[in-house]
Amino acid sequence: MITTTHGAVRRPVAVLAVSLVLVGCGGGGAATTPDQRPGTTSVNGSTAAPPAPAPHVALSVAPQQLPGLGPKTWAKVPRKTRQALVVTGRDRNSSISTVVLYERTAAGWRAGTTWPAHNALKGWTDHHRAGDLRSPIGVYALTDAGGLRPDPGTSLPYDRSGGFRIGGTGFEGEPLAGSFDYVVAINYNRQAGTTPLDWTRPLGAGRGGGIWVHVDHDGPTQGCVSLRKNHMKELLRALDPDRDPVVVMGDAAALRR
Q: Which of 25, 118, 128, 214 is catalytic?
């Protein structure tokens, strides 16, 4: 039996067998007369000095929309969202990404630290299928978390369960142990409000699922996004369900659409 903890709430959910390599993862001035021009002789015979240049003022203004997103992608970000995890893939067929958690303030979107990440072995797709080894492009809610290790202090509902245990090796021979110590479920083809281990697939099993943000194992994933363990802990502690967090994910060219 898996127990879910969120504050004092405990709910049982069915134990699911998970046999995964990765389930996945400005204007002009006034006119002057000749004796008013800088460097010319005035009526009283004195020479006017050239005016001092205006000082350069560097302005730091937060953008009003998430950087790097085109109109189609930006339109998919819910208006209520005040936290956005932006995952930007190097290119369509690359398994290398960067991740930034943005927070929306009264001044605009403020960026956090840029984190290195992995995505699926073969890159990205607009139409994810089970086993295609590509991560789904899109905007998805982040509502549920869990892992093999104790809750590191997240505000999301968190399932601690042995069902997150994993072994074996990844695509580059790297050990997978510990990859699911901490996970955040990406709401692609899953039922929100359940443990990340829930196997419900609203789009059907053929469209894949079990797409998570999880601990990086130094190699490509099957479909998930992976972050170093310390960054996963930071993410879990930062995500706030009251801020309606989402992940915006895809290769850079796709996100600019």
A: 214
Residues 6+ apart with CB under 8 A from 28: none
Indicate if the alpha-carbon torsion angle 146, 150, 154, 157 is positive or negative. Answer: positive
Let me know if 25 is a catalytic residue. no
166 touches 217 (CB < 8 A):
no
pLDDT in tens, the chain (257 residues): 333 444 333 333 333 333 343 344 443 333 333 333 334 333 344 444 444 444 443 445 678 999 999 999 999 999 999 999 999 999 999 999 999 999 999 999 999 999 999 999 999 999 999 999 999 999 999 999 999 999 999 999 999 999 999 999 999 999 999 999 999 999 999 999 999 999 999 999 999 999 999 999 999 999 999 999 999 999 999 999 999 999 999 999 999 99
Distance, CA of 69 to CA of 86 (rounded, Å): 9
The amino acid occupying position 148 is L
Domain ranges of the chain: 80-257
3-state secondary structure 138-186: EEEECCCEEECCCCCCCCCCEEECHHHCCCCECCCCCECCCCCCCEEEC
The catalytic position among 118, 128, 217, 224 is 224
Task: Determine whether 214 is an active site residue.
Answer: yes
Pairing of strands 145-147, 158-160: parallel
218: left (phi over 0), alpha (psi -120 to 50) or beta: left
From 176, 146, 152, select the one nearest 164 (Cα to Cα).
Answer: 146
CA angle 203, 244, 252 (to 5 degrees): 70
